[in-house]
Design a protein that fits this description.
By secondary structure, the chain is an alpha/beta fold. It folds into three domains: about 190 residues, 3-Layer(bba) Sandwich (FAD/NAD(P)-binding domain), CATH 3.50.50.60; about 110 residues, FAD/NAD(P)-binding domain (3-Layer(bba) Sandwich); about 110 residues, 2-Layer Sandwich (Enolase-like, domain 1). It is about 30% helix and about 25% strand. The protein contains twelve helices and 22 strands. It has a five-stranded parallel beta sheet with strand order 8-15-9-10-11. The protein has a five-stranded antiparallel beta sheet with strand order 18-19-22-21-20, sandwiched between helices. Strands 3-4-5 form a three-stranded antiparallel beta sheet, with no helix packed on it. A hairpin with a 4-residue loop joins strand 3 and strand 4. The longest helix is centred in the first third of the chain and has 25 residues. The N and C termini lie far apart (about 55 Å). The site of flavin-adenine dinucleotide has 27 residues, from strand 1, helix 1, helix 2, strand 3 and helix 7.
Amino acid sequence: MACVEGRETLGGTCLNVGCMPSKALLHASELYEAARDGELASLGIEGTPTLNLAQMMRQKDASVTALTKGIEFLFRKHKVEWLKGWGRLNGPGRVTVTHADGSHSELQAKGIVIATGSEPTPLPGVAIDDRRILDSTGALALAEVPGHLVVIGAGVIGLELGSVWRRLGSRVTVVEYLERICPGLDEETAKTLQRSLSKQGMQFRLGTKVSGASVTAAGVELSLEPAAGGGAEQLQADYVLVAIGRRPYTAGLGLESVGLAADKRGMLDNQQQRSGVPGIWVIGDVTAGPMLAHKAEDEAIACIERIAGHAAEVNYGAIPSVIYSKPEVATVGQSEEQLKAQGRPYRVGKFPFSANSRAKINHEAEGFVKVLADERSDQILGVHIVGPGASELIGEYCVALEFAASAEDIALICHPHPTRSEALRQAAMNVHGWAMQA
Ligand SMILES: Cc1cc2nc3c(=O)[nH]c(=O)nc-3n(C[C@H](O)[C@H](O)[C@H](O)COP(=O)(O)OP(=O)(O)OC[C@H]3O[C@@H](n4cnc5c(N)ncnc54)[C@H](O)[C@@H]3O)c2cc1C
């Protein structure tokens, strides 16, 4: 088994410039804000903190290095050879690797897995210059706190990184083309999150498109226009983060040498991880489905099982999705809008964290748990959580969905007290109107 990686370190986007560094900064900035704005003082923990941004970045980088080294260790342990360089398909069963010194090596394999991931989608007229106009990688490594940061795109990455810099002291304006944040997310959940982020000081310009940007001595001047048409206006920013999404990465991959082609969005097609060409497999961000690390991981497991001749399946209906804002948002399964579009009758069970004793005692009682269950069978179809620890709580409902549990199943399971997980049970009870704690 060999893995060809062009980057200097292992771990892909997730470890190097994605999930892990963003979570490191979200954690540190949350603590800083709690100390600075009196949340800790109200608990009797006093003192005004000073921000040492360089140290905050160093601890993030140290954690990332430890994690990427961890993958090196796992490669050695499981005898996976790491071939450093950029891989290119060179006909069926063959890969050419170009190393940093310009030398090449040729590999032959019965099975080739394309897992080349994705890259930030560029926005015409707003070119990334890695100085003032940044993509997510740049926004994870700024050397100063922007006075005014404009985030283009109210998706997960924009809201998470916008949260980091707002907590560290920036004025943050999020400009979004659509009339809502987080397209695809259950609408009530998205509105609750937007209200909460607005209360924290994040400003939203919805239904607005950015049509151009010019870098000036003082920062960046953006041209904004109503998405529905109308006059342009200018918006000044110190830094701009372009976060309008990611696109599959297949540049220089030699797809044509094996007769493969990406679709219009640059995406490679797959049927149960098989590309159209025998012996070539496709997983992760480079192919259809949510661009999430755990989705890529699930596909990797299924793909390798299939190569080994075993049965395997990825349940795309039970892949959770999280926004690591404060409050966190976590969802699995279908939204109310999706169920309505299908004409599928459903019941809603909701429970607010303001009635959950653990959340109240911790002063983090914002948000709710919402369980959507089939009206006739009571099978759980979707769960949407806004609130403290939502990213951890959602795991219970991933299990529930995989086991085709009913809301009653969850309602009858004993949950520990006092925990936020009780809200999961109470919401399930409320599908039938039995919640006891509210
Ligand atoms: C800021 C940010 C935050 C994120 N946060 C989360 C999160 O909290 N949770 C979550 O689930 N997901 C998150 N993601 C998404 C997650 O990082 C991706 O979904 C995940 O990394 C996809 O995995 P992958 O293996 O498909 O591709 P990648 O992780 O992108 O790995 C592909 C690798 O292939 C290498 N490569 C590409 N072409 C070649 C070639 N020709 N030869 C050799 N090597 C090549 C690249 O260098 C890269 O290292 C985040 C992403 C970003 C940008």
